[in-house]
Amino acid sequence: MRSVVLLLLGAHLAYAGTHSLRYFYTAVSRDTDFPEYTTVGLVDEGQFMYFDSKIMKAVPKTEWIRQNEGAAYWDRETQNLIGATQTYKDGVQILKDRFNQSKGVHTWQMMYGCELNDDGTTQGYFQFGYDGEDFVSLDKNTVTWTAANPQAVITKHKWEANRAIAEQYKVYLENTCIEWVKKYVGYGKDTLERKVSPQVSLLQKDPSSPVTCHATGFYPSGVKISWMKNGQDHDEDVDLGELLPNEDGSFQRMSTLNVGPDEWKKNGFSCVVEHQDKTIRKTEDDIITNFDSVPIAVIVGAVAAVVLVIVIGVVGYLVYQRKKGFKPVSASDDGSNSSART
């Protein structure tokens, strides 16, 4: 089986005091065994619905949505997404031609959604990506599109020629999307507003390996993992991993400190994990170096999360990671409204 690597799109994660609704649409070129088109919907980073071009049906993924929305809701979602399927499949081919690509696996992806904060403020975003890179993004304030590369300028001009596309997205983000966030949070209040502190472990393969600070089982998703050296903040030689979902709906995250054993012995390093109002600190005395002594819950949780991420990745939840922010290019003189053509 050929593999498709799809990375996380956007840095819009729901933290304490924030509720979010996001949708990921992903079309994949035909040189793969995976569905050619998928849609995944998430509330507060947890998947609540799913659709793909093989099953051709929108299905619930949480008990709270099953209990509160009936057949009419799922029939409407199914019909809308069936309509989007061909549009996004066509988009892949259009962009392959535009980038002069005839072979290989390629992806055309959209992420859109909104966030509602406790203070009443909101955010909204529509972002499109091609082959794991930024393509075009909606500037909601100016109701224009920002192109990330020369090929995207063509789409920018095409969509801006029909201002109604961006206007429709803006209205959705500022009104409809926020209304649905409130509705969904009301449906799943007991689940979505629970608070669970993380379990934290310092893991090391052997005494000469890097040390990983692993926080797991926490909810909501907002967690801060930092390192200290002799009582001072330390951010050098640190690799912070992505936020990952666990099978039970909680989250996990890792941060690895890449220093040698001599550096550890000469200095007092500690990992500090902050979640909600709780702070957990782990020091050298807490390091687990013998693999067999790692608590089984940590092993099972980590493996389950990796498996879940792989599965979610191929259905479109993991799209691409914008590490440095969206970088526009200037439009020179020389493409969800699923009807928007690339």
Automatic annotation (TrEMBL):
Pfam families: C1-set (PF07654), MHC_I (PF00129)
Domain Ig-like span(s) in chain numbering: 198-289
SUPFAM superfamilies: Immunoglobulin (SSF48726), MHC antigen-recognition domain (SSF54452)
Swiss-Prot/TrEMBL GO biological process terms: immune response
Annotated keywords: Glycoprotein, Membrane, Signal, Transmembrane, Transmembrane helix
GO cellular component, one term: external side of plasma membrane
Domain of life: Eukaryota
Transmembrane segments: 296-320
CDD domains, per the entry: IgC1_MHC_I_alpha3
Signal peptide limits: 1-16
Record-linked PROSITE patterns: IG_LIKE
Family as reported in the entry's similarity comment: Belongs to the MHC class I family.
Protein name, as recorded: MHC class I antigen
Organism: Ctenopharyngodon idella (Grass carp)
